[in-house]
Design a protein that fits this description.
Chain lengths: 213, 218
């Protein structure tokens, strides 16, 4: 788990410009709980991120962390794994050991909220004619057929709230890992504004990571 | 705490808080920061030396004795921790000097500055301002035999850290041409300021509507 800090460009030695997002780490990334199939029915590692003041957490949250003697952490997320050996509570996870330069990662996070948006922005609908006597410019147009079926299908794309949801961007390359500044440079743009919480995992590529079928 | 004497007098008032519930092996003492900015979370974690993450969390400790840090108004809350942290800071500060943790808000500026320094060490960039008439020698990776030369007046300079760009305007073969160059690019082999024209603007977009004579440079 990490935070988005901003974007910049890097110049490759041959002159090509690589747009990168700078991703930084708050204090955290500690294993808070290890779930096994024996105790919980599935294998996962719960990781905490971002240290906060004690009074910002509720008592249940605080005691859950103090059970293993961990600093107060704000965000807890689980990472499901096939094999949970080697993880203990209060173990710091260092980014360098898990990811190297040139690795592909999936990054998930909350997108920028856009509010209530119409069909054109939300679902890439095409607008009607602006002149030539047209009375429909940015409206939805037709939303269904006639007497059969006589209703509008569920899931019909219509205006609504856009953004502010969790999305994952796949197969982003790690360009550089900077150890002194504790920062990672990832190729491309990431979700949200600077300060946004990100969840970085190794890229799921069928054939490489995931067994076919 | 040995370092509390260095703190400003305003920092020394007692704040009642939840008694420390943590075990002896990992005790945490909390500082309530004055300025409640996101990045100025200051905390000290006492970690036993066998702890696997000891090295990481020790690195995160902020030196309270430093004069510049005390300006942020840290407050030492509990006297219980005073006695315990005395031996800790005494022992550890004698071993290694701590680098203060870089704030996440400064990281972008530091990265850009570092990248510019690297580029400047290879090829220094003169100071270019709007209105300078410059000559740029550009290497195109495809045909490495000869460097292309671009001459013209600097119409604008967009400052963006390592991707600071300048826009050069010139009339070539009767047609006005504007080219944007990132001045810290490794492809640019030389930038030379030939002369300077007095202008009273930061962006010379008006040249597009003026006579071609004003944008011609031999």
């Amino acid at each position: 788990m990490a935070s988005k800090l901003g974007m910049m460009s890097l110049f490759e030695p041959d002159g090509t410009v690589v747009p990168v997002t700078v991703v930084g780490f708050h204090e955290g990334n500690t294993v808070t709980q290890v779930k096994t199939s024996a105790t919980d029915g599935y294998d996962a590692v719960q990781v905490g991120y971002r240290r906060v003041r004690e009074k910002k957490l509720t008592k249940p949250e605080t005691c859950h962390l103090q059970k293993s003697g961990i600093i107060p952490l704000r965000h807890l997320q689980e990472f499901r794994l096939t094999n949970v050996e080697g993880f203990e509570p209060n173990q710091m996870l260092v980014f360098d050991e898990i990811f190297k330069e040139g690795d592909f990662v999936d990054v998930a996070g909350t997108t920028i909220g856009k509010g209530f948006q119409g069909g054109i922005k939300r679902h890439n609908f095409k607008r009607g004619q602006m002149t030539h006597g047209s009375k429909s410019h940015r409206a939805l147009g037709s939303i269904g057929a006639g007497t059969t079926p006589g209703r509008v299908y569920k899931g019909k794309k219509m205006p609504g709230r856009m953004g502010g949801t969790r999305t994952k961007i796949r197969k982003l390359r790690i360009v550089r890992v900077d150890k002194e500044l504790n920062v990672v440079l990832i190729n491309g743009a990431l979700l949200g504004k600077p300060g946004n919480l990100l969840r970085i995992t190794p890229a799921k590529i069928v054939g490489v990571n995931i067994p076919k079928n | 705490m040995a370092t509390s004497s260095h703190l400003l007098p305003q920092a020394l008032h007692m704040i009642p808080r939840i008694p420390n519930l943590s075990s002896k092996s990992l005790g945490v003492s909390w500082f309530l920061p004055r300025a409640s900015s996101v990045n100025s979370r200051i905390s000290v974690s006492r970690v036993s030396l066998n702890h696997p993450g000891a090295i990481e969390s020790r690195k995160r400790r902020v030196i309270i004795a430093k004069a510049e840090e005390s300006n942020e108004g840290e407050t030492e809350a509990d006297l219980e921790d005073v006695a315990e942290t005395v031996e800790d800071t005494g022992v550890e500060e004698a071993k290694t000097p701590w680098k203060p943790r870089t704030k996440l808000g400064d990281v972008m500026g530091i990265l850009n500055k570092k990248a510019i320094e690297v580029s400047e060490s290879v090829r220094p960039v003169p100071e270019i301002r709007t209105g300078d008439i410059v000559e740029i020698k550009l290497e195109v990776p495809e045909n490495r035999r000869r460097l292309s030369i671009y001459k013209g007046i600097v119409m604008s300079r967009q400052n963006a850290g390592i991707h600071t760009t300048i826009r050069i305007r010139r009339i070539i073969a009767g047609i006005g041409v504007e080219i944007v160059f990132p001045i810290y690019s490794p492809n640019i082999k030389e930038i030379k300021v030939v002369s300077h024209r007095k202008v009273r603007r930061a962006r010379l977009y008006y040249l597009r509507d003026k006579l071609p004579r004003l944008s011609t440079f031999k």
